[in-house]
């Protein structure tokens, strides 16, 4: 066991038996550390259900194309914990991470604290000690009581599209989830809001009015759309004719529009050349990521088109299925899903957009999480959504079944491995690809 894993395991043992969203434990630890969150670079704070990681990645790519030094905090990681913390453009080194975690462990002195809270404290230490121009800070869960919400005066707040997810912690209705997400809004700080269901938009507007946050709304104050293979962004400052973002899927047009609007409202949008370069270079592993080589691809049928995506709720699967449908119109191939999922997710809602699109679903367990839905349970959910499905003991067996099932097809299949970021991480590790 390496040193990073050893200290993370020790910190995980301090985790309360149940997740209790609050800021008290973290604020206590941050005081013991000298309040590093008060010395970080200017912050853009990002929450939402879907698209927050992609929006953050696009902002980072644009800022770095302009030569800015950018800190980034995201979660969860895919292969290595270090992916969660970028310091001035580079993933945190094991040495720096171990030192920060060790100082947090000593300052916490064995008190009960969640894993995300203590690792967020370590991130704040690192962000306060390494110079940078800006910090892109992504919420872990919710917003109002999330550990990242110790930031009091962000340059801007961002709320990406909302959907049902994490109902156990955020509430059983979309209005409950919207209230929790809107908890990152701060007095006087501009807030950039993605297209939302009507009931969620109403809650966000109410919280913003109560807190004195200035809303900038997609579709009202700015817009973004695809036209003739290009990406158009427009707001009161004018129109930008840009290349499509490098990330796959039409939903990335909304994410790119959100990124530009957020940087504009935060006062740090660079020139058009940097925006174009950022859109062309942005990378966000495990989100409609094509796999073209490696051991996982070798397990698939010859000539198969292989995609990897960690979206895990109905909103995400709707966007992914729309992209796959567009691919089908351009190049008709039989679609096979390989899916693993956490117990906390809605599998029937996830599978529903693929009805009539996927030929078969192979369900698998998650190796890297103990709280996964059994493959047999996922089969029942897939069938309830109108799909044919079979359980398998693991990824290799599932892919082997696709090889056999597609043997006589006139065209090589399209394989989508999906349903969980944990599954994405397992696939990338097996394929020898470390997200950078």
UniProtKB/TrEMBL annotation:
It comes from the Bacteria. Coiled coil: none annotated. Pathway: Cofactor biosynthesis; tetrahydrofolylpolyglutamate biosynthesis; Cofactor biosynthesis; tetrahydrofolate biosynthesis; 7,8-dihydrofolate from 2-amino-4-hydroxy-6-hydroxymethyl-7,8-dihydropteridine diphosphate and 4-aminobenzoate: step 2/2. Its EC number is 6.3.2.12, 6.3.2.17. The keyword Nucleotide-binding applies. Residues 302-420 form the Mur ligase C-terminal domain. The keyword Membrane does not apply. Residues 46-262 form the Mur ligase central domain. InterPro entries: Folylpolyglutamate_synth, Folylpolyglutamate_synth_CS, Mur-like_cat_sf, Mur_ligase_C, Mur_ligase_C_dom_sf, Mur_ligase_cen. Its cofactor is Mg(2+). GO terms for biological process: folic acid biosynthetic process; tetrahydrofolate biosynthetic process. Belongs to the folylpolyglutamate synthase family. Functions in two distinct reactions of the de novo folate biosynthetic pathway. Catalyzes the addition of a glutamate residue to dihydropteroate (7,8-dihydropteroate or H2Pte) to form dihydrofolate (7,8-dihydrofolate monoglutamate or H2Pte-Glu). Also catalyzes successive additions of L-glutamate to tetrahydrofolate or 10-formyltetrahydrofolate or 5,10-methylenetetrahydrofolate, leading to folylpolyglutamate derivatives. This is Dihydrofolate synthase/folylpolyglutamate synthase. It comes from Stappia taiwanensis.
